[in-house]
Amino acid sequence: MNCTVCGSDSLEIIKAKGKKSKELLLKCEECGNIFREVVDVGKPVDRRVVVSEFENSHKTFIKLYEDEILHLGDLIDLDGREAEITSLENKRGGRVSKSAVEDVETIWASYTDIPARVGISIDYGGRILSQKVEVNPDFEFTIGEVVKMGNIIFRINSLKTLERKMRKGFARASVTKRVYGRPVDEHRFKYDLTSKVV
Fold this sequence. Notes:
By secondary structure, this protein is an all-beta fold. Helices cover 0% and strands 61% of the residues. The protein has no helices and 20 strands. A hairpin with a 2-residue loop joins strand 4 and strand 5.
């Protein structure tokens, strides 16, 4: 939709009414022109959502309009609980970072009101110590940082996220499945995960 006077697509919806087709009262943010537009919104369709809660997951469905665009990180309402989209699978079986609803086969999400549970694997030259920690979903694990967990101080070497294995950079806990590290002989560390171990 574009402004009927200046052609700008920067529009504010002042009022919307109707179900099958919506009559919108729009205001152009460029020139201030106010005008009406009728839009056919179609019927919402059901899309499968797989919701993860730690090691468990369950399926549900959400009603969305086919022309809506979904992105990784978008928030959706699932039966009154807010969830974040962590992965999108299209109808060709591929994982994508954004997609129109009409092309989406499955949406993966996790609730935002629970902490993220992340596995930690520390390699002692072939002997692996494995723990799980629960942290805020926005917590960031950065490769190269030195971390304390109990009486162990280790450096993060790599991360496994929902999408890939990483050897540089950082990832939010909400998309991190496992953190890999090696012990170091240092006394300075970026943060302490001791109280987060489950």
